[in-house]
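Much of our argument rests on the idea that a fold can be written as discrete symbols. Part of our work consisted of pairing the sequence of a single chain with a tokenised description of its backbone. We regard such an encoding as a compact summary of how the chain folds. The amino acid sequence and the backbone structure tokens for this protein are reproduced below.
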Amino acid sequence: MKQIPNGPMAGRTVLVTGGTGGIGRATAMGLATMGANLAITGRDRARTEGAAREIRAVSSGQVDLFVADLSSQSEVRRLADEVLQTYPRIDVLVNNVGGYWNTRHVTPDGLEHTFALNHLAPFLLTNLLLDRLRQSAPARVVTVASNAHATGQIDFDDLQGELSYSGSRAYNQSKLANILFTYELARRLQASAVTANALHPGVVNSSFGAEDPRGIQRLIIPFARPFMKTPAQGSATSIHLSSAPDLEQVTGRYFANSKPKRSSKRSYDEAAAARLWQVSTDLVGLIATT
């Protein structure tokens, strides 16, 4: 017989994108042990079902799965529709999905893969779920960024890396975009009880970037693994931002090791954030809102 959910997150519904491995799965596992009802997304059905089984083993709440490739905007929209049909409330959205590609790839929408998956996917999904989050308030949007944002810059003249592409430059730009998006979202949600925060999970020993690694990654990572965080350690800040009672009204902040941290100077450029929001709105086909 299914036990009654208990714990500090009992009765709350959390959606974690990219919840089949690494930080995402560890985040879902951690929140499940706290009694949350979990929904995870993954590209591969078998892998997503396997992760859901593992989470159910430690969960007293409900665990659901959704299969979608979030680099495709039609898949993001389908996911949002399915989530809205399934849940009358969403208490926490964890934008965790992300990737790194050393060579330039183009999505079905004709967009550079890193920018599409790391930035446009959470931007579109969050906007599609925003009314439900507002209705569920107090609610939270948690976006996994990276300290790599510190060397990133938004190249508005070549967002898609068509003129010049570098895997690290594309990744760093996407992580800066995550933070600019978070801060702009927080400003737009000031009148609501929905918070938006971003975080650096640390350097985590996972399969991240394994699909298309740089040569230097192949050389260095085997030696660096003993010094990297485990996925469970890397998920600690995501779990903290999703669940800590004292963060219910904290918004527009960047965290590392579960503590507030100052992000890069570029990340506080409100004009760049507003411009990125408008460009992103156009790229995903949303109707502009105030």
